[in-house]
Amino acid sequence: MRLNKDISLTVILLIGIVILSFVNIEEARPKIESSENIRYDESTNTLYLDSLTIKQKIAQMVVTSGVKENKEELHELFIGGVYFGAEPAKSDYIYVINFFQDGAIVPLFIATDMEGFRNPFENFQKFPVFTEIQTKEQAYDIGYEQGKLLKELGFNLNFAPVVDLEDNIWNCRNLPGTPEEIAEKADYYIDGLQENQIIATSKHYPGKTLSSRDPHKFIVNAVVDKNDLFPFEQNIENKVSAVMVSHIIIKGHVDSGSKPSVVSEKIISGLRNKFTGLIVTDAISLLGLKNFYADEQRMYIDLFKAGNDIVLNFDYNIENVQHMIDIVANAVERGEISEEKIDDSVTRILNAKGINVK
After folding, report:
1. Which among 109, 207, 287, 353 is least surrounded, fewest beta carbons within 10 Å?
2. Which residues, in sequence order, are CB contacts of 203 under 8 Å at separation 6+?
3. Which residues pair with 312 in a beta bridge?
4. pLDDT below 70 — which residues of the chain?
């Protein structure tokens, strides 16, 4: 009889411990602010910037992975956009993109990457890799056809074209030719995309990203010259909508100050002086950036402090994305990051989505 009582007591204690552990997990999770405060006038398509909290402004600057289970939390965070890789069929893309856009306060960026290495749509539509593009006319036709497909599926942002002068890593992502020929082909490709209302992204500024070691795996140093920068300058003159900045540590014609370009205020401010569009980070999970930092929190702060408009955090775990937002918000509140700079980025983002800002 005594044994049964001991067993019962042990079971009760174990149940209590399990319940308390779940309570502690819930308490430890960062709480998501309600989005009810956001003032968006649908009749005039106007969002009032002063109605956003600092965290909501920062969240609008983030593009993350399109994980269906995260939809409601992403909407509450006021996240800026989601990224999709491969899906089996057109209908799968149309369903999941409509699923994410449904209920969003303002439209999300819906992003993918048709940079010429992998085609996420290869199950139902083939495209040449970039190294096969021989003429500006062919570049325009491919850009137009890709733009037409992206628009049909519901995308509005493409992280392409690559305008690095060479690709010695994958051997398929760069446009062939002289710097002038690469710039011209990229301009025509961009025209084809943007005529379909797809935001094009010239990358990876300021060049040399694919020349030596793979920045997905290694910290990379390189020297750039005027030729490396030429295609970007031409694309900017041709009104490309976005430029992606690399994780390469750069010297030469421009200098990142012994740090990855994407966290270099010197590089970003130099780009901003000649470019009014969206400045986008390369994916922040790449080891070429992450391994530069002993402290991940410092990396988050530097990414926003440098002046990037859109930060690509493709972490599947929404709590990790929210943690980044909280870290950056604290830096804004203590004055380490200018709220005015954040406001400027959010305004550019909303304007790119066709939304008026007051």
Report:
1. 287
2. 115, 159, 160, 161, 162, 163, 164, 209, 243, 244, 246, 280, 282
3. 63
4. 1-30
Rounded CA-CA distance 279/290 in Å is 20
Question: In this predicted model, what pLDDT tens digit does every residue of 42-78 receive, in sequence order?
Answer: 999 999 999 999 999 999 999 999 999 999 999 999 9
Dihedral of CA 55/60/62/66: which sign? positive
Cα(233)–Cα(210) distance, rounded to whole angstroms?
19
Rounded Cα gap, residues 157 and 97, in angstroms: 13
Chain center to CA of 263 = 14
Q: Measured at the alpha carbon of residue 199, what is the angle toward residues 150 and 347, in degrees to the nearest 5?
A: 135
The DSSP H or E segment spanning 356 is: strand 356-357
- Do residues 119 and 172 touch, judged by C-beta distance below 8 A? no
What tokens appear for 318 in the block?
């929404």
Write out the H or E segment, with its range, that includes residue 56: helix 54-60
**Would the CA dihedral through 247, 167, 112, 197 be positive or negative?**
positive
Q: How far apart are the C-alpha atoms of 2 and 27, rounded to whole Å?
A: 37
Burial track 90-101 (b if 16+ CB lie within 10 A, e otherwise): eeebeebbeebe
Neighbour-count burial for 12-22, b at 16+ CB within 10 Å, e otherwise: eeeeeeeeeee
Whole-prediction pTM value? 0.91
The closest alpha carbon to 297, from 337, 267, 257, 268, belongs to 337
Phi, psi dihedral angles at 158 (to 5 degrees): -125, 125
- DSSP letter string, 64-125: EE--GGGHHHHHHHT--EEE----SSHHHHHHHHHHHHTT-SSPPEEEE--SSS--TTTTT-
| pLDDT tens string 85-143 | 999 999 999 999 999 999 999 999 999 999 877 899 999 999 999 999 999 999 999 99
Domain residue ranges in the chain: 1-30, 36-357
Q: What is the CATH number assigned to the segment(s) 36-357?
A: 3.20.20.300
- How far is 166 from 211, CA to CA, in rounded Å? 6
